[in-house]
Design goal:
alpha+beta, 6-stranded antiparallel sheet, 18 helices
Length: 720
């Protein structure tokens, strides 16, 4: 025995003259009565062990049964092995007084340690002669029998006698049988406890999941999930975080008794316990959190609660991260182990599913509320139909537009409700189209009071999980818009007609003025009246300028009226470039500029409107000459694929981005100061862009204030 007692703390053998086997004179009794008594004692032992309810009761009944006078074992103890420490813990004893409950014998101490190491019975006939014996008797012998199962050693049965060499083979058989019976009973009791515990855990888990699955509010679910986990694991506190995919961070959504309200704290993946398990997708047990180097600095303000051990686990659905959970305990004696991890691993997948379902439910509810709000507050009339065109619902705008209440319209066919015989066929065609694809149009529809509205309409199929389940129709009242458009078109037509008439009326006298000024200039030169020539030149120049403006206004009005026609013909590109360069030469020289032309001789031909191409080049070259002084103007031509590209560059005043944004608008120039300094009406570039677009091309601009501008005209070499 490993307890060091005083001589008065031990029971002595019952006979003053014990036999050599340690029992009270068993060999001197009659064999018949001795065998019968021993068999009865063993039967009582077996019955008592079989009837025991738990491990503690089994241990007590084993030593109590062996202590039976018929068996004669006076000093007995049964120790169970602590697998974590290797200590032997006393569960039951007979024959010794004042032995502490659950007395611990450290690993490596005493004779009984040998039986634990090799799983064999060990007999020590003379305990005083063995160096490993921890003195408890002044002399005597000891038998140590291991309690074994298929999984390993459970404990050890220690039997001592005050007499040396007191045990024989028969004793070994009895004690081994008792130890085996105890082992089987203890293993069975532990299995029953384990199964009962697992059943209880499973029931608790199922109850938990049932409760969590019924909760749809995400914030309440998160708090409930954490509370259930704390109760299930029997810990003092914990936290739960959900994973934010957009930021790739964990956001703590619920916390309890961790020393601070950590709700809202964000943890990057890899930070702290939950960040670590979220990154690795593996659970983690930290026996001593204070010594763990991975602690998050965000928990520095923790006060009032000492966190000793921590266990964390990711919340996963397959390989998809939903969040993470951490449970903490403030008792330093509580160290998380395999059983805690097993419970957590049972809980977390179900919790992850419940959380994800709640998130999806909340997101679906939010989207539903969002779209309901959009439909209810939309100024556009929206109505939903089944596949037969019957109204199932509509928004307030529909009621305001057509005048029908829900009671009057729901369940009725939409087409027959808001159409007459004249428009019904067209409406039915739109509805049929909308069952398969988007249908759009403009038509007249009837209101409840019989008036007609011009509406822009659209119908789209409603498809759920790949199946068409209905139609959504939208109506927008365009009655006033169409009326305004008609009025605007009429006004525009009147304007264009007025400009055309006025241009004609102005061109005739202007041509006469220009003609007469040229005649007078020639006559003055012949008559030697040189003093009149400058004034006549001014008259001619002013007339030509005014005629150009009138031509621009007339061209713009024709374009806007859709009466500008295209006359396509084939022409040589180099010829028209040379012609434009020659025509613009006086304007180039006026501001002492130089003109450079880069046009390959083999540039080829174009099939387009030659007059409009020439006008485009002249407008852009004229514009460059106007805003450049003592600089360089260049005209470069190239064939790029099926396009002819003209680039007109200058080293003039350039423009800001704001000025460029409105440059191609009619009657617009870069700024008012430009008009005052350089003149012009702002029509040239507007007409240039419209001509380019009419010829299936376009013009773009690159410019920087103070460094110049480059206009790029890209036209197809051949137009249809």
């Amino acid at each position: 025995m490993e307890k060091q007692p005083t001589s008065s703390s031990r029971a002595k053998p019952k006979k003053t003259k014990p036999a050599a086997n340690g029992r009270t004179d068993p060999r001197r009794k009659a064999n018949g009565s001795r065998i019968a008594g021993r068999q009865s004692a063993l039967l009582r032992l077996s019955s008592a062990v079989a009837a025991a309810q738990d491990e503690s009761e089994i241990c007590d009944r084993v030593v109590s049964g062996l202590h039976d006078p018929a068996l004669g074992y006076d000093f007995l103890a049964l120790f169970m092995l602590d697998e974590k420490t290797g200590d032997r813990i006393l569960q039951a004893s007979r024959g010794w007084r004042d032995v502490p409950d659950h007395w611990r014998v450290p690993a490596g101490k005493g004779l009984s340690d040998r039986a634990l190491k090799d799983g064999q019975l060990h007999y020590t006939p003379q305990v005083k002669r063995d160096k490993d014996y921890v003195a408890s008797l002044s002399t005597g012998s000891e038998v140590d029998i291991p309690l074994k199962t298929g999984d390993g050693i459970l404990g050890v049965l220690v039997v001592e006698s005050a007499e040396p060499d007191a045990f024989d083979k028969q004793d070994f058989e009895i004690l081994t049988a008792a130890a085996n019976q105890a082992s089987i009973a203890i293993a069975r009791a532990r299995l029953l406890i384990s199964e009962r515990q697992r059943a209880d855990e499973q029931k608790a888990l199922l109850d938990t999941m049932a409760d969590l699955s019924s909760e749809r509010d995400l914030s309440k679910l998160l708090q409930a999930t954490l509370k259930r986990a704390i109760d299930l694991l029997g810990v003092t506190g914990g936290e739960l975080a959900i994973f934010d995919e957009e930021s790739q961070q964990l956001v703590i959504a619920a916390s309890y008794n961790v020393g601070m309200d950590s709700t809202g704290v964000r943890l990057p993946l890899g930070e702290g316990v939950m960040g670590t398990v979220a990154r690795t997708h593996k659970p983690l047990i930290i026996p001593s959190y204070a010594e763990w180097p991975g602690r998050s600095v965000q928990y520095a303000p923790v006060t009032g609660v000492t966190v000793h051990s921590v266990m964390g686990a990711p919340l996963l659905i397959g390989n998809t991260l939903v969040g993470a959970m951490a449970s903490v305990h403030s008792d330093p004696k509580r160290v998380f182990g395999a059983n805690d991890l097993r419970l957590l691993n049972l809980f977390t997948p179900q919790a992850a599913i419940a959380i994800q379902n709640a998130r999806l439910y909340n997101e679906a509810r939010r989207q539903k509320q969002y779209f309901e709000a959009v439909v209810l507050n939309s100024p556009v009339a929206i109505v939903t139909l089944d596949l037969d065109g019957v109204i199932t619902s509509f928004n307030p705008a529909f009621e305001r537009l057509f005048g029908f209440t829900q009671e009057e319209a729901v369940g009725k066919g939409l087409d027959s409700l808001i159409n007459t015989e004249e428009t019904l066929a067209q409406a039915a065609q739109y509805t049929e189209q909308a069952t398969h694809h988007t249908a759009r149009g403009i038509g007249k529809r009837r209101t409840k009071d019989g008036t007609f509205l011009d509406v822009e309409l659209a119908g789209v199929p409603v498809i759920v999980d790949g199946e068409r389940v209905g139609i959504m129709a939208l109506y927008h009242d365009v009655t006033e818009l169409l009326r305004a458009n008609a009025q605007a078109e009429a006004a525009n037509k009147a304007k264009s007609q007025f400009l055309a008439n006025m241009s004609h009326e102005l061109r005739t006298p202007l041509n006469a003025i220009i003609g007469y000024s040229e005649i007078l200039e020639e006559e003055a030169a012949e008559a030697g009246q040189d003093a009149f020539i400058p004034d006549l030149n001014k008259i001619k120049s002013a007339g030509k300028h005014l005629l150009t403006l009138i031509n621009d206004v007339l061209d713009l009005s024709k374009i806007e009226a859709g009466k500008m026609e295209i006359f396509a013909e084939t022409f040589d590109v180099k010829d028209i470039v040379d012609e434009a360069a020659t025509t613009i030469e006086p304007s180039v020289a006026k501001n002492r500029n130089s003109l450079k032309v880069f046009c390959p001789a083999d540039i080829g031909t174009m099939h387009s409107d030659v007059l409009k191409v020439r006008q485009i080049l002249l407008n852009l070259l004229s514009n460059a000459c106007k805003f450049t002084e003592k600089g360089t103007i260049s005209l470069a031509v190239a064939r790029e694929g099926g396009d002819i590209v003209f680039r007109i560059s200058d080293t003039g005043i350039g423009m800001t981005p704001e000025q460029m944004s409105r440059l191609f608008e009619a009657f617009s120039q870069a700024e008012a100061s430009t008009t005052r300094s350089y003149g012009g009406t702002g029509l040239g570039l507007a007409i240039t862009r419209k001509f380019c677009q009419m010829l299936d091309g376009d013009v773009t601009l690159e410019s920087k204030r103070g460094t110049g501008s480059t206009f790029t005209v890209r036209l197809p070499a051949t137009i249809e």
